[in-house]
Amino acid sequence: MIDHISVGVSHLERSAAFYEATLAALGLTRLVTRPRTVGFGKAYPEFWINLREAMPRVLPESGVHICLRVKTTAEVDAFHAAALATGGASDGAPGIRPHDRVRYYAAFVLDPDGNRIEAVTFPQE
């Protein structure tokens, strides 16, 4: 149903480096670079970052949360590690999240601007 998403960032190259490493763990690469936007994806840009120089840090109360589905727990782990290595912060280490209806494995990170990004998979066992 969703074709693509985009997030605002206050420093394009810093955020491009962060997302290039973090999304690479999920198989996405930088496909488009324009003066104020960068697009990442597999076959076409699915995840965009857009420069907003005057943008303040995203507050935790904002509710911003983007979840990316992956195939394996190893991808979730790699996503989290890459984010921390490139200036992101953990907002939930990789692990099983038991829920009332489903059991899933996920990790949450904050990008350099405070956007909350999650990687999730649903292990069979």
Q: How would you explain this protein's 3D organization?
A:
21% of the residues lie in helices and 41% in strands. It is built from 2 helices and 8 strands; from the N terminus they run βαββββαβββ. The strands form 2 sheets. A 4-stranded mixed sheet has the order 1-4-3-2, with helices on one face. Strands 5-8-7-6 form a 4-stranded mixed sheet, with helices on one face. Helix 1 packs antiparallel against helix 2 (73-85). It has one domain (5-52, 65-121): 2,3-Dihydroxybiphenyl 1,2-Dioxygenase, domain 1. The protein has helices at residues 12-24, 73-85; strands spanning 5-9, 29-34, 37-41, 45-51, 66-69, 89-98, 103-110, 116-121. The model has no long low-confidence stretch (mean pLDDT 95). The longest helix has 13 residues, at 12-24. The protein is of the alpha/beta class and 125 residues long.
How large, in whole angstroms, is the Cα Rg? 14 Å
CATH topology, anyone?
Answer: 2,3-Dihydroxybiphenyl 1,2-Dioxygenase, domain 1
Q: Major β-sheet, in short?
A: 4 strands, mixed
Strand sequence of the main sheet, in spatial order? 1-4-3-2
Can you write the helix and strand succession as a string?
EHEEEEHEEE
Mean pLDDT: 95
Topology record:
Layout: E1 5-9, H1 12-24, E2 29-34, E3 37-41, E4 45-51, E5 66-69, H2 73-85, E6 89-98, E7 103-110, E8 116-121
Parallel strand pairs: 1-4, 5-8
Antiparallel strand pairs: 2-3, 3-4, 6-7, 7-8
Helix pairs in contact: 1-2
Q: Any descriptors?
A:
alpha/beta; four-stranded mixed β-sheet; about 120 residues; 2,3-Dihydroxybiphenyl 1,2-Dioxygenase, domain 1; single chain
